[in-house]
Amino acid sequence: MYSYLTLNDGTEVVHSKIIEKNGVKTVQVHFECPVEGGFKSARCELPSYSWLFNEGYSDEEIKFFTEFLEHNAHLLFEFASEGGMKIA
């Protein structure tokens, strides 16, 4: 997984490399935030926006993440194909 960014609430957003499934290029995006006693986490697969799992996030938070992904999917695919974001 490659680091993408950290949201204001401490949620880490990371993504996979390009994964080819049945001839379709996909990227998995993982969200994780520390909470008392551990972490809450969720993973979504692009371009289908299919949530693979959700452990602890509310429906409202998942809706926010979905909108976030809709605005960032093109960048996530670009960085996934290049082996992550290059930071100088």
Overview of this structure, please?
The chain is α+β, with helices and mostly antiparallel strands and 88 residues long. The protein is built from 1 helix and 6 strands, in the order ββββββα. A hairpin with a 2-residue loop joins β3 and β4. The model has no long low-confidence stretch (mean pLDDT 92).
Helical coverage, percent range = 25-40%
Please tally the β strands and state the result.
6
Number of helix segments? Answer: 1
Quick check: average pLDDT? 92
How far apart are the first and last residues' alpha carbons, in Å?
Answer: 19 Å
Kindly estimate the percentage of residues that lie in beta strands according to DSSP.
35-45%
Overall geometric form:
globular
Helix-strand string: EEEEEEH
Largest sheet: 6 strands, antiparallel
Based on CA atoms alone, the radius of gyration comes out at 13 Å
Q: How does the helix and strand content classify structurally?
A: alpha+beta
Low-confidence stretches: none
Task: Jot down its keywords.
single chain, 88 residues, alpha+beta, 6-stranded antiparallel sheet
Tell me the layout of helices and strands:
Blueprint lengths: L1 E5 L5 E4 L3 E3 L2 E12 L2 E9 L3 E6 L3 H23 L7
Antiparallel strand pairs: 1-2, 2-4, 3-4, 4-5, 5-6
What's this entry about, in short?
By secondary structure, the protein is α+β, with helices and mostly antiparallel strands.
